[in-house]
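thread: overnight batch results

M.L. [08:02]
morning all. the overnight job finished for the chain we discussed friday. pasting input first so we're all looking at the same thing
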Amino acid sequence: MKTNAWIIAVIGFIGSASFAYAEPTVADLVQKHDEMKNTYEQKSAAQADIIAEHEAMKKDYKRKFYINEKVTPNGKYGKMAKHCDQIIKDAKKLKEDYSDFAKWHAMQARELAGT
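M.L. [08:03]
and the structure it wrote out:
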């Protein structure tokens, strides 16, 4: 008898737990896509800041420290330029990816909203 009561209690708990989960509504999904779009737009803007920062860093470094080939060996400027160029390249790729993700989420939100 105790076993049957325990089994019924477990089945009741499992049954009630399955009803506790509610499917997201279209409005919820639209809101989620809008939030993701905003997140990716912010990330894209942050990459634009990184690009600008390293472009300025590269330019300033050359202006401040590079005199000519004899005084400032190209290797010294070359290391800094390589550092900045790689970061700029990677940041541009990330900026593009984030922008594409933002566009995709905006499209999904519009599609779900029917606009």
